[in-house]
Amino acid sequence: MILIFLGPPGAGKGTQAQHIASTRGIPQLSTGDMLRGAVAAETPIGLKAKAVMDRGDLVSDDIVAGIVAERIEEPDCEPGFLLDGFPRTLPQAEMLDELLERAGRKLEIVLELQVDEEALVDRLNSRIAETKAAGGEVRADDNEETFRKRLEVYREQTAPLIPYYEGKGLLKAVDGMATIQEVSAQIDKELDSLS
Ligand code: AP5
């Protein structure tokens, strides 16, 4: 099973991706996590990506698609994988189509998590509070100003993927305003209907 999670920052992509990864036994490929790992390790990609991520912009399509292309070749992706945060632009979506076609693989479903914008800001603030309470480090791009910028980038560059995947008959909208458990149940139902 190959699937994509689409949705604005804070919509719950990471939360639901973990649920699917554990219940379906496929890896969660989060480009945000991969890039943060590269930043922390100060790799050449990480050094390039840091400033872009800190201001809420998108890292270049070529860099991100390169990371994904390498990752999906790994053996744990053989039974399938879940893309969390990729693709984020139309060129990335086209690059993914090419990668999958070359590998003779097929994207099965794109789940779009729909959440109201003000609820997203509340969730961001909760995540910051929870991270601080647990003694963790708050993400450099998790502050209200950068978050608003990430929302704007989502509207301009990522939202066009909704009609793109709708046109391919792959898009399923999920009500992301429900509780975490209810959202998981909606997703489970969509995935069960595929098999
Ligand atoms: P990335 O790491 O992908 O961040 P994001 O898309 O902005 O998403 P978030 O991780 O903030 O939110 P989420 O939807 O995963 O929500 P979560 O489950 O955490 O990207 C970061 C940056 O990396 C980008 O800005 C860009 O610079 C770069 N990047 C990444 N991919 C790229 C790409 N493909 N191309 C170019 N650049 C790229 O939930 C949020 C909070 O809400 C949590 O506290 C959670 O507990 C809570 N919550 C979740 N669900 C619910 C619910 N149903 N009800 C109440 N609370 C909930």
What is the element layout, followed by pairings?
Blueprint: E1 2-6, H1 13-24, E2 28-30, H2 31-40, H3 44-54, H4 61-71, E3 81-84, H5 90-103, E4 109-114, H6 117-133, H7 144-158, H8 161-167, E5 171-175, H9 180-192
Parallel strand pairs: 1-3, 1-4, 2-3, 4-5
Could you characterize what this model shows?
The protein has nine helices and five strands. The chain has 195 residues and is α/β, with parallel strands linked by helices. The protein has one domain: 3-Layer(aba) Sandwich (Rossmann fold), CATH 3.40.50. The chain has a five-stranded parallel beta sheet with strand order 2-3-1-4-5, with helices on both faces. The longest helix has 17 residues. It is globular and about 40 Å long. The model has no long low-confidence stretch (mean pLDDT 96). It binds BIS(adenosine)-5'-pentaphosphate. BIS(adenosine)-5'-pentaphosphate binds next to α1, α2, α3, α6 and α9.
Brief summary:
The chain is α/β, with parallel strands linked by helices and 195 residues long. Helix content is 56%, strand content 12%. It has a five-stranded parallel β-sheet, with helices on both faces.
Are there runs of 5+ residues with pLDDT below 50, and where?
none
Global shape: globular
Helix-strand string: EHEHHHEHEHHHEH
Strand order of the largest sheet: 2-3-1-4-5
What is the number of helical segments per DSSP (H or I, 4+ residues)? 9
Could you say which small molecules are bound to this protein?
BIS(adenosine)-5'-pentaphosphate
Would you identify the CATH H-level superfamily? Answer: P-loop containing nucleotide triphosphate hydrolases
Number of strands: 5
| Class of secondary structure makeup | alpha/beta
The CATH topology name reads Rossmann fold
Function: Catalyzes the reversible transfer of the terminal phosphate group between ATP and AMP. Plays an important role in cellular energy homeostasis and in adenine nucleotide metabolism.
Binding site for AMP: 31, 36, 57-59, 85-88, 92, 139, 150
GO biological process, one term: AMP salvage
Subunit structure: Monomer.
